[in-house]
Design brief:
Structural class: alpha/beta
Number of domains: 2
Radius of gyration: 22 Å
Strand content: 5-15%
Helix content: 55-70%
Shape: globular
Number of helices: 15
Largest sheet: 4 strands, parallel
Order of helices and strands: HHHHHHHHHEHEHEHHEHH
């Protein structure tokens, strides 16, 4: 991989950060800030030109949280290493810009950076040390907007120098089909699927969980599956069957509607329980509303994320968010994500 290619991917990740801050300002204070429509369109056009991938998205509907998710996922299936470097450029830039503020957001970005670096080390064995040395240098200094380019320049040089010394990398210069085949030999890469079982009457809780899983999905650490991913015309029975068979973790959104669902009890719970017993799949019940969970022995054998006496509907919004965070961490532990 050439120096110019590495720089291109990292800098594009930085451009995502710049735009995201403008979108956040607009979302928080729409009466004070205008929507950066031209900048969004320019970035989408640049993305399409650079990566030869069509990036259709009505700019008027693009939200701050959509920026990294949409573009990285667009390129990920075709150019996985480019997507990984783009993600790294994004998170490094976000970390650098947020460094001056500190707090929990910075701590979360530190965790995200660590995960992306681990993925880079998988693609370019041994590169972790060079990257962490650059980060350490910039962690020790005060934030300065004028030094942003130096950060990316030093990071690009570190990655390029490592590739020059090591030569051919483990997977980065192989076709995408071969990359996929090689990864299929690693259990940690195969079974990172999280199957979500729920009643459609509890869709709002599914949507909240999807939001909390986004950071893990963006980094490729979690492959979320729920029936909202089934496309018109697909064989839904086969789709559900395959998703359950490949799931390492199953999240159950437990409510009276869930327990009453004939569809769930017939098509999803039996194979999920069998997978738990035969393959070691991890079952994580999340109690969303009062119900007979404790009396349902087939399910109550599994430790719920929150006590049955404290379902989400009885909690304050802040406490609910804490439970969702606890759930994502339980998923990380089950998938052995460090």
């Amino acid at each position: 991989m050439k120096y110019s290619d590495i720089e291109k991917h990292l800098i594009f990740g930085h451009n995502l950060v710049s735009l995201r801050f403008e979108l956040i300002a607009y979302e928080l204070k729409p009466h004070e800030y205008s929507y950066p429509e031209r900048k969004v369109e320019r970035l989408l056009s640049e993305f399409a030109d650079r990566y030869e991938i069509r990036a259709d998205s009505p700019s008027s509907h693009l939200k701050a949280s959509d920026i990294p998710d949409k573009l990285v996922s667009e390129i990920g299936l075709r150019q996985p290493v480019a997507a990984l470097l783009m993600s790294f450029g994004y998170f490094i830039g976000f970390w650098w810009q947020t460094k001056q503020h500190g707090g929990e957001i910075l701590a979360e970005l530190e965790r995200n950076n660590k995960r992306v670096i681990e993925d880079l080390d998988f693609e370019f064995p041994g590169i972790k040390n060079q990257i962490t040395e650059v980060i350490a240098r910039f962690r020790a200094i005060e934030f300065d907007e004028g030094m942003t380019y130096q950060l990316y320049e030093q990071m690009t040089e570190a990655i390029a120098e490592h590739i020059r010394k090591v030569g051919r990398t483990s997977e980065s210069d192989k076709p995408i089909t071969q990359v996929g085949q090689n990864r299929a030999t690693s259990e940690s890469r195969i079974r990172n699927q999280v199957f979500i079982s729920y009643s459609h009457k509890d869709t709002k809780w599914l949507e909240r969980l999807q939001i909390h899983l986004k950071p893990l999905e963006r980094l490729g650490l979690v492959n979320r599956w729920d029936d909202s991913l089934i496309k018109p015309g697909e064989n839904w029975r086969e789709e559900i069957k395959e998703a359950i068979e490949s799931a390492k973790v199953a999240v159950l959104l437990i409510s009276a509607d869930f327990l009453a669902s004939d569809f769930v009890s017939t098509n999803e719970l039996p194979p999920l329980l069998a997978s738990a017993q035969e393959k070691g799949a991890v079952i994580l019940p999340l109690i969303v509303s009062p119900c007979r969970f404790e009396e349902t022995k087939s399910l109550s054998q599994f430790q719920s994320v929150n006590p049955p006496s404290r379902p989400l509907t009885k909690m304050t919004p802040n406490n609910r968010e804490e439970v969702f965070v606890a759930l994502t961490r339980a998923i990380e532990n089950a998938l052995q994500i460090k």
